[in-house]
Amino acid sequence: MNLRDLKYVVSVAELGHFGRAAEVCYVSQPALSGQIAKLESELM
What we know:
By secondary structure, the chain is mainly alpha-helical. The protein has a single domain, classed as Arc Repressor Mutant, subunit A (Orthogonal Bundle). The chain contains three helices and no strands. The chain has helices at 3-15, 18-25, 29-43. It is globular. It starts with a helix and ends with a helix.
């Protein structure tokens, strides 16, 4: 887990949309989704 991954989660939560969150974080939507999935697996 790192701060970048937490920023991704916060962006999705605030915007309610993976595509817009990806734009705000300057990454592609698949990259954002993959990092969030990785973070989820770390937390389980």
